[in-house]
Amino acid sequence: MTEVIATNQTILVVGGGISGLTAALEAAETGKQVVLVEKRPFVGGRITQLYKYFPKLCFPTCGLEINQRRAKMNPNLTIISMAEVTEVQGEAGDYSATIKISPRYVNENCTGCGDCTRAVEAEFDNEFNYGLGGMSKRKGAYLPHKMAHPQRYVLDPRIIGTEDADKAKAACKVNAIDLEMQEETLTFKAGAIVWATGWRPYDANKIQPYGYDRFANVITNVEFERMADPQGPTGGKLLRPSDGKEAKHVAFIQCAGSRDHNHLLHCSRICCMATLKQTHFVQDAWGDDGKSTIYYIDIRAIDRFEDFYTRVKNNPNVSFIKSKVASITENSENGNPVLHGVDVESYNRDGNGGYDRYATEYDLVVLAVGMEPSVDKGTFPVDISINEEGFIEPAPENGGVFAAGCASDALDVNRAVQQATGAALRAIQVVNRVAGTEGQ
Amino acid sequence: MTELNTAMIEQYRNSFLQEVEANVEEGEWVKMCMQCGVCAGSCPLGNAWEHPPQEIFMMIRAGKREAVLSSDSMWMCTSCYNCISRCPRGLPITHIMHGLAHYAQRLGLVPKNQPTQRFAQMFWQNLNKKGRVNELKLGLSLYFMNGFGEGVKTSLKMKDIGLGMLKTKRMAVTEAFGGHGVKDLSGFQKIMKKAHELEDARIQKSGN
Lengths: 440, 208
Hints:
The complex is a heterodimer of chains A (440) and B (208).
Chain A: E1 10-14, H1 18-29, E2 33-37, H2 60-73, E3 77-80, E4 83-91, E5 94-101, H3 115-119, E6 123-125, E7 137-139, E8 141-142, E9 154-155, H4 163-171, E10 184-190, E11 192-195, E12 199-201, E13 218-220, H5 221-228, E14 249-256, H6 271-286, E15 291-296, H7 305-313, E16 318-322, E17 327-330, E18 337-343, E19 356-361, E20 364-369, E21 371-373, E22 401-403, H8 413-437
Parallel strand pairs in A: 1-2, 1-11, 2-3, 11-22, 13-20, 14-15, 14-20, 15-16
Antiparallel strand pairs in A: 4-5, 5-10, 6-7, 8-9, 12-21, 17-18, 18-19
Helix pairs in contact in A: 1-2, 1-8, 5-6, 6-7
Chain B: H1 3-11, H2 16-23, H3 38-42, H4 53-61, H5 65-69, H6 82-86, H7 93-107, H8 115-130, H9 135-143, H10 148-157, H11 159-167, H12 185-207
């Protein structure tokens, strides 16, 4: 059984992505007791699935390593993975939270040796690679990614009760596999709560004219990120899903599902920079043979990002077309997606008046999908103020619950971390108040 | 130049956008366009338009009154609603196109012999007589719209369909003589008269 020692002076952090992890560490390093609850089997969230950060083009693994080390070294921080908060009751300074922990089937004896993975045969789509999971499968006993913290394997619940589960158990030399593990429910106290449930990419299937559901070579920006990663499904090569052909001519479609009355109302803030960054991946992979074309309404690269934008604009291998693409079709002979629309800056370019209509083929199309809150509006297990877009509003009636990172708005990593630090401070203020009244 | 046209030019000397907002159905949406071009790209007849919708919206804002109102672009709209369903700002583009066409018609600025306009006028007159569209008469007047010779040719081309329709009772020869109408014809005419009065008063008010 999992045990948690928590009081009214404990801070509960919901979500262990970069925002939740930051808030938890900042609070724990001031000496507060912190319990971090994470749904996935590891912390770090979606940044673990990124290849490079903008604007420095550095690797997220670097900051992740630092944060995981901080987490390992801090005795004030308890991480509970594969757990979800199902209910929160009470008020600021006196909350009672109920969590549901899914069975991992692997206990703390695990040394991360990987014998179980080698023993089992069943394979599944690797969810770590989003929709490209089918391009490289993972085993039924697996480590979600190489740097996963906690560094402990997971058994897929789909192999439980099959021969594979027994094989994994037999292969384990340290008796770490416990096939009898059950779902647990746990209730504990907390004085303040940092809500950091983050975001998910907008479902590209909902953008009907772009055919994400119909055309293999139309992918999303998060999938392209996995493709560029040497640990990803293609080993870091830009190969298109339909036939493994080298993707040299890549189109990026901005505002795919963002700033759109039919989809997300808000600007997701990160997609312009993410695309500008991803043109570097094309350039780095193919040199002058790689061509990127960005279809945009307007490029939103704020303050210091403007320099990054200017540099990309000066790259002769990257072109910009001001146009919201109307639709995508597929050339059935070669599998190339064909983009259709009107270039709204082309008026009278050829001297005959009118706008240029294009029907242009590419090897691969990347939809720059935006962020939506990962918790559906109306399903929050706690009574807090949620705005029209589904993000948490900083309202007084939220009491001791503070939003951190993308649960509060569409943010890039840099801003999410700053915002999470602020949320940690607000939570610390609440538990300090409790400590004052309790005479400590 | 019609009197109304002169009055409107005087009234909105410097702002065609305001004129459109006040007088064109759904015209108040024009300023919401963000020039993404998805309407132009989505229009199945897009390459037949001199000015696609997003260009018309820009021309309205730029005060190109003559060019917009005497354009035949908005008459090309077939009401497929592709633009409306894709517009990220939710502009009722189809309705604005019809609103502009109607306004241009009232001001007498429609290009001569614009076929859609002529057919619309024919349809309207046909409908106004009995409160119901007389399809036989409407079809025939459409065939003969461009002269007797072409009318005969088109009629002969369509004769098999016409005979088929007669046989299956989808069309009656008797419709050529008077034809059927609504039950309360005088009531219908009163409604139309009132509607005209209201519309005239609205336009008159905005033109003063």
